[in-house]
Amino acid sequence: MSAPKLLDQVRHKIRRLNYSYSTEKTYLSWIQRFILFHDKRHPREMGEVEIEEYLTHLAVDKAVAPSTQNQALAALQFLYQEVLRIELNEEILPVPAKRPKHLPVVLSRREVQAVLGELSGTHRLICQLLYGAGLRVSEALRLRIQDLDFDRGEITVRSGKGGKDRRTLLPQAVLPALKRHIRGVRLAHENALAEGYGTVELPRGLARKYPAAASDWGWQYLFPASKLSTDPRTGTCRRHHLHPSGVRGAVRAAARQAGLAKHVTPHTFRHSFATHLLEDGYDIRTVQELLGHADVKTTMIYTHVLNKGGRGVISPLDVVSGEP
């Protein structure tokens, strides 16, 4: 019996380690591109030098972002260390991708109200959580019912960026609409159970340990998709969460309807959350914790977009014109 092909070995190892399906697709894509770049040579015939050449190519010829270059490196490190069992002994030092120094797009409070006013239904509720709790859109869509604590006014974000959990606030203003939404989700879940469906994907191999948990109410997605889908890994037909593309499209349309010229995306609400908290005088370490940033330097970018930061600078034109 012939040995499995390399990409099949990678796929099998990723699934054994319970990596997400999106990570599986991403890693396989980078490994394929690495092999093609080196004229289809087998990775066993290559090593640190070839990895460095490829990552330099991404930075110099493709002008990718640093995060993209790091993603490619992570995929290749996984290939060599986890699949091929080859240690990469030498330090890999490609030409680093240039980090663009762009300030984040931030909405004023009036603009936030204007965009939210053009949204309705589930998309409005999602964006209220993005702005009210500082969530990434992927974090909001992956929320389970059990992640909401109404008594403590908290949201628990599971396996956020970097695989870390964190807690953030559950805005009080959204509670009436959120509770109505949850009642509708529960009714749909009960109907699905009666029809023989009603299960969801469980994290970190819990499906094997607690097979009944997939149908438990607490594990259901807060924002389930309207239609059932087939899991590409297992072939199981079940309900996944909403896809972020629908939220992105709704936000773009809402910003256009609101007459905003800014480039508004769902992530703009998270930027606005951080900036408005700092404007209100909250400590930057508190904001860092709510956002889940590993380094306070990441959070400090929002100090550069404050309307009135610590310097409280007033334009000289406003002074001579007598404007406040």
Primary descriptors:
4% strand, 5 strands, mainly alpha, hpI Integrase, Chain A, 48% helix, DNA polymerase, domain 1, globular, three-stranded antiparallel beta sheet, 324 residues
Topology readout:
Blueprint lengths: L5 H11 L4 H17 L10 H13 L5 H18 L25 H9 L3 H13 L3 H5 L6 E2 L4 E4 L8 E4 L5 H20 L11 H4 L19 E2 L6 E2 L5 H14 L8 H14 L4 H8 L4 H4 L16 H6 L3
Antiparallel strand pairs: 1-2, 2-3, 4-5
Helix pairs in contact: 1-2, 2-4, 3-4, 5-10, 6-11
Describe this structure in words.
By secondary structure, the chain is mainly alpha-helical. The protein is built from 14 helices and five strands. Helix 5 crosses helix 10. It is globular, with a radius of gyration of 23 Å.
State Rg.
23 Å
Overall 3D geometry?
Answer: globular
- What CATH architecture of the largest domain do you see? Orthogonal Bundle
Our estimate of the beta-strand percent is under 5%
Main beta-sheet annotation: 3 strands, antiparallel
By CATH, the topology of the largest domain is hpI Integrase, Chain A
What is the chain-wise order of helices and strands?
HHHHHHHEEEHHEEHHHHH
Distance between the termini: 81 Å
Summary of the model, kept short:
By secondary structure, this protein is mainly alpha-helical. The protein is built from 14 helices and 5 strands.
